[in-house]
Structure formats: structure tokens, C-alpha cells
Amino acid sequence: MFFEGGFAARRWENGQECCHVCFWSLGLDPRNCEISRQQAKKGFAYMSMVSEALGRISSSPTVGISQKARQMRQAGRDVIALSAGEPDFDTPDHIKRAAVAAIEAGHTKYTNIEGIDELREAVAAKFARDNHLKVEAKDCFVATGGKQIIFNALIATLNPGDEVVVPVPYWVSYPDIVHLAGARAVFAVADAQTSFKLTPEVLEGAISADTKWVILNSPSNPTGAAYSAKELEALGEVLLRHPQVHILSDDIYERLLYDGRRFATMVEVVPALASRTLTLNGVSKSHAMTGWRLGYCTAPAHIIEVMKKLQSQSTTHASSISQWAAVEALNGDNRFLDEWRKVFQGRRDMVVGALNAIDGIECLTPDGAFYVFPSIAGLLGKTSAGGRHIGTDEDFVMALLEESGVALVHGSAFGLAGYFRLSYAASNEQLEEALNRIGVFARGCARS
Q1: Could you tell me which residues come within 8 angstroms of residue 47 by beta carbon, excluding any fewer than 6 positions away?
Q2: How does residue 19 score in pLDDT terms, banded at 50, 70 and 90?
Q3: Which of 12, 44, 183, 194 could be stapled to 39 by a disulfide with Cβ–Cβ 3.0 to 4.6 Å?
Q4: Closest Cα to residue 151, out of 35, 293, 1?
Q5: Taking residues 192-218, what's their average pLDDT?
Q6: What number of CA atoms fall less than 13 Å from residue 122's CA on the CB side?
Q7: pLDDT at residue 34 is higher than 90
Q8: 428-443 vs 393-404: helix crossing angle, rounded to 10
């Protein structure tokens, strides 16, 4: 195969060439090209420009819903978007000032792949201070967001035939990253009957000789469920019986835990698992820094090394400016976090109360994060006031968006049908109006 003049071509044994105008670069299918059709009649094969690996994954449904909401707004529609997973607060000023100071000091060059020493020292101090983990800077790694930490770890360690246990409901990217690596996601259901938490019995049943990783996310996206130390200890006892299994502990919502609950992470509770656990965190959710793209972790040396090797051939390192901002986020004044937590808890209580007052919707009270994950079982099978049949949770969220201008994410996007995810990282005024619209929409639904 060779590229020339905007064409992708393959020269066959008879010396002739099969050329396609690069429709693929425009998001089109070259198989629709008349030249391609004529060549196919002559026995030439179509050669896809999309990798087989990419064919194993889908686009993020949460991003898709948010994009549709933005398009509707641009078209003049009044839309309240409660689909995105980011705080509505602004990055604190002292963190912004640290970024500006880094620019003015000339910290704009390449850094170490694994992150600047100052940040990895701050990460190690954070893990020691907040999570009682005995780690040093050399045990810590920095990447362009928590998602890249997960991507690096799984892509660098998984092979075809390997399995990863993914609790359901799950954050949308977990299974797709597993599939991109050519491995198999094994889904372990943790539904409303167990408050969306994995039980030791279900975990045990999901593990096989091929299991390489188990992913735990607490507090959870999309449910807000959080494991207590006692619950983690019970899961840890199962994992101790399976020495081939590594644990990816996604703690990105650590700071958002309500009702006086104390956060716990797996290695803190079961130190014997430290040699095979990656503990992930970041500043996106805690410090309202989603756009800064900065995640970090601590992990065993054999995991750090392969992540470093992979990252050296992709992004190289996180933004130098974001790294210096994160140093201030971790080491600086964090008293504002308590106030933010109170605001989120108040919003949670308002949202849960309003949803449970709507016939057809049932909502558990989440432990943390900034999501609710209510059941709409009582609305399925009905028809909206606009004439749309509500046969699935996706039908529900799309009808709600089109008819009432509220953007949510359907539960099946997270692996559990019959639910939806609502992010209450929005102002009280927006939430009150959105809840009113959801109530009006639900009351307007009639049995088909």
C-alpha cells in the first residue's frame, strides 16, 4: 500500500492499481465511490482505512448526548444539559495563579514522561496523608487525565484471551478500553438490590484463570455508590485467593463523599494487595479541573514501567503547565472542598426528593460523586405526550430531550437498562427547572 496525491492505493500482482480518493478522511465510505465499485467488479478488493481494533469500540454515549444538547442550543432550543460529568464550579484562583506563575517562570518545556518530580512528590504526600499508603515519588505516575492512566495500564498489560472484571453499571469507557486491547470484559452485575455495589459472591463468580484485572470505582460513576472499608475488606478477601488478578482502583471521586462517610481505598484496607494494585486519582472532579487533563496514580514498579513505555510513544507527558497547577492543587489550601461538598450534598438531596415524588421513577440516595441513577421501570411501555413510545431507557432520554429540553444519559450506556443518569453538577435554578420538566414529561406519559 502507498499514499500519493490524496489517494490510498494498492498495487496488485498484475501491476494495476486500486485507488480510492481519501473519502475516509472526510468521514465518508470509499465503497460508495463509483471508481471503487467499478474496480470491485474487476476483482479488486476494498481495503478499509479503519483498524480492526477501532471496530471493537464505540463512541462515548455521554459525549454524544452532550454534543446533541449543544447542537440543539445552537439551533435556538432551550436545553438544560445534565449529561456531562464535570463540576460547574470554576478552578480555584490560587491554582490558576500557580499555572500563570509556571508560564512566567518558563516551565513550558518537555518534562519527564512520568511527570515532574515536584508533582510526583506531591502525589506521594497526598496518598500518605489522605489514604495512609506508604509510597514514594518513584512509585507515582502522571498522565493526561485519569482516562489516560486507565488506558495506559490496560493497553500496556492486556493480551487477547485476557479477561477484565467490570462491575455493572460501569463508567462507559472501561469496557471499550478493554476491548480495544483485544481482551474480554466480564460483566459482574451490581444492581439496585445491592445498592449498586459488587458483592464478594458475584466477584468470585466473575473471576477465572484468565482474569488479569478487576476494576473498582468508588464513589461510582454513574451511581454514586461508595464502598465502606468493611465492604472493601470482603472483596479483598476474594482477591487474595486469586494471585494472578490485578486491581485498578479508580478513586477519582474520592473528595465527593456525603453524610459524614469516610473514604476508603483497597490498599489502605488490604495492604497485602499493594503489589498488584493501581490506585488512580486526579484533580478533575475534586478541583474542577476537567479541562486541565491531569490524572495520577501509584502502582507497582512493573506496571509503572510499561505505562511509561507506552506513554513515551503517545502523549509523552501531561502538559507542563497543568502539572504545576496540580502541585498547587495537592499542596495548597483545600478548605474550599468542604464548602463544595456541602453544596453538592444539598443538590443531591433536592434531586433525589424531587425524582422520588414523580410516579414511575424510583431513585436511591447516592453515597457520593454528583450523579443519581434512578429507575424508570414505571414509565416503560408508555407513550409520551409528543407521541413517542417509551420502550427503552434510551427512548425515554431521547423523548425527554426532544420534547422537554432536558439532556440525561440512558442507563444502558452504562450497562444497566431501565435507568438514567442525571448529573447534579449544575446550579440549583437549573436543577429545579429540569426536575419540573421531567415531572411534567412523566405525567404526560400514558399507557400504550
Answers
A1: 1, 8, 10, 18, 20
A2: very low
A3: 44
A4: 293
A5: 98
A6: 21
A7: no
A8: 110
Residues 145 and 265 in one domain: yes
Name the band, by pLDDT with cuts 50, 70 and 90, for residue 37: low
Asked if residue 337 lies in contact with residue 329, where contact means CB atoms within 8 angstroms, the answer is: no
Amino acid identity of 392?
T
Q: What is the CATH number of the domain that holds 442?
A: 3.90.1150.10
By the 8 A CB rule, do 344 and 256 touch? yes
Give which of 126, 149, 268, 272 is closest to 215, Cα–Cα.
149
- 217: CB partners within 8 A, 6+ apart: 167, 170, 171, 250, 252, 253
- Residue 319 included in any domain: yes
Which residues are paired to 217 by β-bridges?
250
Scanning 313-372, the segments in alpha helix (DSSP H) are: 320-331, 336-356
> How many folded domains does the chain comprise?
3
230 with 302, same domain: the answer is yes
Contact in structure between 423 and 253 (CB atoms under 8 Å): no
pLDDT in tens, 73-93: 999 999 999 998 899 999 999
Same-domain check for residues 250 and 103 = yes
Tell me the three cell numbers of residue 220.
461510582
What per-residue confidence (pLDDT) applies to 39? 54
Q: Which residue has the cell 466477584?
A: 203
For the segment 357-401, what is each residue's pLDDT rounded down to a tens digit? 999 999 999 999 999 999 999 999 999 999 999 999 999 999 999
Give the domain extent around 166: 93-331
pTM: 0.89
- Residue 284 sits in the same domain as residue 356: no
How large a percentage of the chain has pLDDT more than 90?
83
Task: Report phi then psi at 185, rounded to 5.
Answer: -85, 125
* 125 and 9 part of one domain: no
Inside any domain, residue 56 = no
